[in-house]
Amino acid sequence: MSAVAPRRIRIVCISDTHNDDPTPHIPAGDVLVHAGDMTDDGTQEELERALAWIRKLPHKLKVIIPGPLPFFSTNLKYFKINLSLMHLLGNHDLGLDPSHKAYNPTMHALFTSAAVQADGVVFLDKSRSTFLHNDILSIYANSYQPDFLKSSYAFTYAPFPSPEATAAWASAPDKRSSSSSTASSGQSEAPLELWLSHGAPKGRLDWIHIEGLMGCEAQRRKVQAARPQVCVFGHFHCSYGVEKVVWRDSGDEVDSEGDSDGFKECVVLTEENRDAPYDFTSLERGKETVFINAAWMTMEKGKVEKRNKPIVIDLAY
């Protein structure tokens, strides 16, 4: 009797669309992940336009995950695969951050309205965890990132080391919580683990030509402890790409000082003009993590027509 082939899930990754409507360039897939900054300023007009193209996408389920509070965790333990969309808000989407002076409650109400939900859009936040069917995906999402420039952007905190940075990632899962959630759900196999953030973990596709800007050290430590299968983010437009980290066999936990990167190999897989999916169906759980900077916009933004392609990956479940 021949072995049953593993089922595949196709995930399309994009970020930093900054008022563009990328609909013609979005490939088909089971899940589309948008890692934030769908607008430039988060005004009502910009948010309405962004929501309009999201609602028109052919995907039957569109899940929007903002960061309305200093931190949040959304664990989609039951996620029915049926052409889905995941959207995460970034630090330019000011109107959807209740802690920001530009917060627009009308926009928050629109994104959570019955009419928008009828189009398959699901708006999630810390106070509204949603559990969907089949236990396919476990998703941790966090829009917050360090503010090295003391800006007026949304979803930011003081850079590490700071109490704010620690608090921002206090809700992040680790390997123990992942395994326990699987056991409590009664499932024989753990769900696929996705980590969604707007900013990068420090050292992972976070290069930028502005001195002093980088990914978050607090997030890096949490990712190292959790070892999710896939991390998707953006923000650093000039570091678009794909990397695969192979973690060390020993020293599973972050060391006491947190100064060990914890991996023995990092393989750069970026192909800027690639149309075919990256095949990660043989990814080793707990031993390998794929990092994806899916920034759609280049550093030149609206000054040039060039855009980065959405990154498509296949996972097995």
Automatic annotation (TrEMBL):
One GO molecular-function entry: hydrolase activity
Domain Calcineurin-like phosphoesterase: 9-238
InterPro entries hit by this protein: Calcineurin-like_PHP (IPR004843), Metallo-depent_PP-like (IPR029052), UPF0046_metallophosphoest (IPR051693)
Gene3D superfamilies: 3.60.21.10
Protein name according to UniProt: Calcineurin-like phosphoesterase domain-containing protein
Source organism per UniProt: Gymnopilus dilepis
